[in-house]
Amino acid sequence: MVANLSIDQSTDYYRTHSPDQVFNNLASTSLTESQRWDVVASIWQSNTTPVSLANGKQLYAQNCAACHGENGAGDGVFADDLAQAGEASMQTMTGADDMLMQSPVDFTDQQRMLGASPALLQGKILRGGMGTGMPMWGSIFTEEQIWDLIAYLYSLQFEYPD
């Protein structure tokens, strides 16, 4: 279906556009909304492999799930502690470390994830969630690992075949 459309399917296009942008770029076609989302999912799927998804899932489980939750819903074992630290820092001006804490992002939130480009997510992973308490992973993960992790995060929105 994607091959018959005049849409850029390059890696650069994928990385710099959010799923929502691609969906909206397809508005002038004769496709239904459901078909447009199928095209978007196909583009996102074509930019990963089963091996990359498996690697991303493993990286997520080992490094992200404690805060963001096993299923990405922002409800990891440390989420309550981060939320309490964030609330406490808003009530007083003490504890600079506490001021940096916020509740972890919910990667199952469709509006958030479908509105985020892969490049935006890459920047957040590289530099950390500035002002949120999320660590900077750029010096820990390789570039390939970061893209694998991003592919896994999008798999929480799109159903990829095994």
Note down, in words, how this protein is organized.
- With 162 residues, the protein is mainly α.
- It has a domain at 48-155: Cytochrome Bc1 Complex, Chain D, domain 2 (Orthogonal Bundle), CATH 1.10.760.
- Helices cover 56% and strands 0% of the residues.
- It has helices at 11-16, 19-25, 33-46, 50-63, 65-68, 79-91, 96-99, 110-114, 118-127, 143-155.
- Helix 2 packs across helix 3 (33-46) and helix 4 (50-63) packs across helix 10 (143-155).
- The protein is globular, with a radius of gyration of 17 Å.
- It starts with 10 loop residues before the first helix and ends in a 7-residue tail after the last helix.
- Radius of gyration (Å): 17 Å
N→C terminal distance: 20 Å
Mean pLDDT: 85
Strand pairing plus helix content: what structural class?
mainly alpha
CATH topology call of the domain at 48-155: Cytochrome Bc1 Complex, Chain D, domain 2
> Helical region count?
10
Instruction: Give the strand tally.
Output: 0
CATH homologous superfamily assignment of the domain at 48-155: Cytochrome c-like domain
Shape: globular
Question: Helices and strands, in N-to-C order?
Answer: HHHHHHHHHH
Question: Main β-sheet: number of strands, strand sense, barrel status?
Answer: none
- Uncertain stretches: none
Roughly what fraction of the amino acids lie in strands? Answer: under 5%
User: Can you give the helix content as a percent range?
Assistant: 55-70%
Q: Architecture of the domain at 48-155 in CATH?
A: Orthogonal Bundle
CATH level 1 name of the domain at 48-155: Mainly Alpha
